[in-house]
UniProtKB/TrEMBL annotation:
InterPro entries (alphabetical): PspAB-like (IPR054383)
Protein name per the record: Uncharacterized protein
Name of a matching Pfam family: PspAB
Length: 198
């Protein structure tokens, strides 16, 4: 950072650290013990749209990367676009501790593939879904450009109105403070309404 940057109050952006995703399995244990939320076995990666041939190659690369050689086509992966034009990749694994660790590895691998393929600037976030006995949803969202996590707790079914359970989000933040690097700026706890994986 140069003198002019310091004078004008500019700072260097935080370098993304994808290895922070590997803290999610221990955070899942904390969340289950402290709040009764268990993993759903679903996780997703969101990135700005990639068009044409590049998108087709990306889909092929991701499917090849996540093919576990089980003879069943590997990890189930779906691609979709939301109302804002962002692309979501949804991966599924069993909803247990082993499946959660494997899902985190999948999300890390996809993020790394995108970053190394020159799509790093398009990466927005990754999330891991959770539910409790009352069927409430909670996602732990990793902000790629900030290198931080935050909880997102939508209320009700998708399309039934956009409300958040702020109390649950703050409870999750308090529980996970020792497990994850939590985003301190609450203004950056962006809602991800209808995100695959919730």
């Amino acid at each position: 950072m140069g003198f002019l940057d310091a004078l004008l109050g500019r700072s260097k952006p935080v370098r993304p650290d994808l290895d922070r995703l590997f803290a999610l399995p221990s955070a899942a244990v904390t969340l289950q013990a402290g709040a009764g939320f268990t993993p759903t076995g679903r996780g997703s990666v969101c990135f700005a749209s990639v068009e044409g041939g590049a998108f087709t190659r990306l889909q092929q690369d991701v499917r090849a990367l996540l093919d576990t050689g089980t003879g069943r086509g590997g990890v189930p992966v779906e691609f979709g676009r939301d109302a804002y034009g962002y692309t979501w990749l949804l991966a599924r694994r069993p909803a247990d501790a082993e499946g959660t660790a494997a899902l985190v590895n999948d999300l890390h691998a996809v993020n790394t593939l995108l970053q190394e393929g020159g799509f790093g600037p398009q990466l927005l976030c990754s999330l891991l879904g959770f539910r409790d006995a009352e069927r409430r949803s909670l996602a732990l969202v990793y902000l790629y450009k900030r290198g931080t996590f935050y909880p997102f707790a939508p209320v009700g079914e998708p399309g039934a109105g956009e409300k958040r359970d702020n109390g649950l989000e703050l409870q999750a933040r308090a529980l996970l403070r020792d497990d994850l690097r939590i985003e301190e700026d609450l203004g950056r706890w962006f809602p991800v309404w209808g995100a695959p994986g919730l």
